[in-house]
Amino acid sequence: MNPFDALIEAMSVAALETLDHFDLDVALAAGVEPGRARAWARLREVYFGVTKFTRKQRDAVRLARGRSLDELALIERRIKPVTDAGQRWGLRLALLGVAGGYAAIEKAARELVPAEEAPAVNQAKFGPSRRGKRTLHLTYDEREMADMEHAGRQGIDPSKPAAQQLADNLVERFFGDGGIPAAAPRPMVLVPLPAFTRILAGEGDDVVLAMTDGTTMTGAKFLALEFGEELEVAAFHPAAGAVNLYRTQRLANGKQRDLARLSMPVCAFPGCRHGAEACEIHHVTAWKHGGETNVDNLAPLCRYHNRVNDDDPWRSVRGRIAMIRGAPTWISPGGVPVKNSDRGAMDQLFGYEKAPR
């Protein structure tokens, strides 16, 4: 059997056997999209996990044989809004009994489990940067949105595509006449400490570098000698990671946050796309366990992942963040390290593309 045929068999006629041997940690480490991997993990729990509906589970296993992973995942997505576990099992068995493949199951699911639309709320969501562009998704009251669309359509050329003209007009109205303050990004230079230095000791807000010629100097003095006194420079050690952020004046209160965000530009949990600027700063070794507020113990985590992170490493259920080669890295409950982004300072400076196992 060639590899493609084996893949199709594993995802269709042998789907239940695949789920029986599924391991979430291995799937994530192999690069499977996290959302898909978690969906498969939930399927394994449904068909092989512990439940008080053991007879229904046996019937479901029998009916699921020959179904594809996508069909099984579709059923779980459609019955997810149902809160009663017994009712979910009944719907699951009913959909497993539908003949005709994916499309037939989807049609039956729409009839058996009408989609409940959540009430719309006013919200704005900004997507991650891609090729110099970002996406804004705005939900607001229809009257105000109609007014915005009307304003955006003023003066557009009907012979040309409207979407780009709408975007340009709205941005012009948004920023025109200086009405909206522009973001002011801080230019910062990332600098790897040369091989002839090593971290010797901490000294307040600075560090002392030991030189191979027998002398020592502070990190701030070293960077001033190398780059002058006008640049804002962040220093990174190839093993220890972020060292300090140096300025020509007293260090800013946000220094440690800046360095944590440079080390990981997004939330450190795999698959999360919250930018570091919108994240909370997490103590890798928890404060309650003696973790200090130092740059080598800080990582950006979004509000949700900061709360589900396992602060007790001996009781890992959802996984936890650890520092590996100076970069925040998620450690799965099975001990597999997975890094969310390779755009952090350590990767840019030293080429650490993958977290070591």
From TrEMBL:
Gene Ontology molecular functions: endonuclease activity
Domain of life of the native organism: Bacteria
Keyword tags: Endonuclease, Hydrolase, Nuclease
Entry protein name: HNH endonuclease
Record lineage: Bacteria, Bacillati, Actinomycetota, Actinomycetes, Mycobacteriales
The keyword Nuclease appears for this protein: yes
Pfam families: HNH
Organism: Corynebacterium jeddahense
HNH nuclease domain boundaries: 255-307
